């Protein structure tokens, strides 16, 4: 619940800044109306960046790969024993 409160506080702060920019003449009004769109696009770019960084830093686990292959072989043998066709691999 605390995380939602932080998100709502941030959203309210961004909304307050946007409304104040709409009421003042600091930035032209044609640009101010596009700020929410820029914000959404920048959040999407940030999300893609975080996914990319996570994929680049994803650890490889060769021991776990061997264990997984052994589990697959064991599962195929069990299914063949019970009469299920699991392919020719």
Automatic annotation (TrEMBL):
This is Uncharacterized protein. The lineage of its organism: Eukaryota, Viridiplantae, Streptophyta, Embryophyta, Tracheophyta.
């Amino acid at each position: 619940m605390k995380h939602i409160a932080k998100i709502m506080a941030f959203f309210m702060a961004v909304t307050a800044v946007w409304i104040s920019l709409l009421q003042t003449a600091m930035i032209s009004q044609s640009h101010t109306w596009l700020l929410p769109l820029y914000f959404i696009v920048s959040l999407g770019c940030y999300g893609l960046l975080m996914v990319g960084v996570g994929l680049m830093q994803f650890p490889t686990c060769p021991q776990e790969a061997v264990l997984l292959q052994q589990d697959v072989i064991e599962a195929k043998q069990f299914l063949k024993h019970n009469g299920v066709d699991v392919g020719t691999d």
